[in-house]
Amino acid sequence: MTNPTRVLVLNSGSSSVKYQLLDMRDGARLAIGLVERIGEETSRLVHTPVAGGERRERTAPIGDHEAALKAVAEELAADGLGLDSPELAAIGHRVVHGGLKFSAPTVITDEVLAEIERLVPVAPLHNPANITGIRTARALRPDLPQVAVFDTAFHTTMPEYAARYAIDTETADAHRIRRYGFHGTSHAYVSRRVAGLLGKDPAEVNVIVLHLGNGASASAVAGGRCVDTSMGLTPLEGLVMGTRSGDVDPAVVFHLKRVAGMSTDEIDVLLNKKSGLVGLCGDNDMREIRRRIDEGDERAQLAFDIYIHRLKKYIGAYYAVLGRVDAVAFTAGVGENAAPVREAAIAGLEELGLAVDADLNAVRSAEPRLISPEYARVAVAVVPTDEELEIAQQSYSLVTSKGL
After folding, report:
1. What's the predicted TM-score (pTM) here?
2. Could you tell me the strand order of the sheet in which 216-222 lies?
3. Which of 23, 79, 151, 326 is catalytic?
4. Which end of the chain has the least Cβ crowding within 10 Å, N or C?
5. d(Cα 361, Cα 94) in Å, to the nearest integer?
6. CB 101 within 8 A of CB 115
């Protein structure tokens, strides 16, 4: 029998499981799916076999992640792609927080799982769900290598002067307080693809990557290594996001507690779920915000202007950090699809060698592409991110290199 070449990628959220099955001979997707509203009466599973077959949907109560993964296994089996297939080489899990211990994809053992659990206090919204998905998958296929690919891993190359906050060192160390960064699989994938667009080795290229989705982050990547990133201890720091505030004066928290009488939990909800674009104008969908701007809505215009102002600040800051910039890359839902965001973010930065060609910027495509004019000193790129492919590639490379 030939060596197995398929990898199942699982992204387990608190009430959802996203999954993709990929063949690593060519990176082709064999199946894509989503289980959402786990634990509710209105649970839904949507499964799409890519290589032939029709999209299937089932709506029925799915009580927990174990039931969800069993349902996923049934859908895959119906297409001849079951979890018991000898062609399955590994299951790759997205894990949001790996702290400082995990700087690379890691085969999951009991000890690794215990360390991921120890990181729950710094990722209370994400790591518990990731752990649940891992435990369930290990129970279903205890014989199969399971790999954790960490959102934070790509950012562990940051120098200490970029990663540390200027607070008491003993307190910071005791409570693991530092900048970890997130969206690492996306930043790693996009920075490599940009180098390919430029016909260069990643080690030769300095890139500012702007991952702009409902969550948003920026990174400064020098020669393939992250040297700074906008998210910090948690995904709350940095850019203006769909529902997250991004950078605020830390004293805002004290002020709200003392003056407004808000509890810590209420402030947490405010900054993570009721701020950003939705807090500024009531919408976190950039398409709706642009529609409102076209109709003359001043709140939507102000929200957009604040969003762009923060983006420009980070582009300028990371230009200074890198010293030389070869490209600025836009990715994720907003970055890939919102031409007005790209245009506005680069406008006025001509002295830095940045410019956007209006016609190229207006083109919609699923392919990586340059949108800067030929005369621009710094390339501007749009690179559709592919975190699932990145997780699958890292997982497959690890298990094959170890002979697992």
Report:
1. 0.92
2. 225-229, 216-222, 206-212, 327-331, 379-382, 369-370
3. 151
4. N
5. 32
6. yes
